[in-house]
Here is the input.
Amino acid sequence: MFKLEEGTPDVGEFLSLRVRAGMRPRSPEGAKKGLGQELFSVLLRLESSSEIVGMGRVIGDGGTIFVICDMLVIEEFQRKGGGTMIMNALMDYLLREAPPNAYINLMADIDGFYEKWGFVPSLPNSRGMVLKN
Here is the structure.
């Protein structure tokens, strides 16, 4: 059903994917500035049409901190294994590239998914915080 490839969507695709996955929108200006700056990125495509239906990125400094972000699958294709394919690719990259003791994190918006790869809540040792602008 799906095929995975290394790559980054263009700005329009990225903005559309976020909305179709039920995620908070980003600005075109921000997407234009940020896309292409990641350490690693994958696209999930339909085998039948090559339409992009998901993605995931790793951002950070490439040495001490790595952040999984923009991990998404559009709603009609969720729960069909695409998210697992994306995470497996991101984790393969991290296991290959992240030095010992690097900080690897993500902001999870669903329970029970990221735990499969060893992620645990950071509380009580630390807590995630956001600045909304």
Remarks:
- The chain has three helices and five strands.
- The beta strands are 2-6, 40-46, 52-60, 65-73, 103-106.
- The chain has a mean pLDDT of 95.
- The domain at 2-117 is CATH 3.40.630.30 (Aminopeptidase).
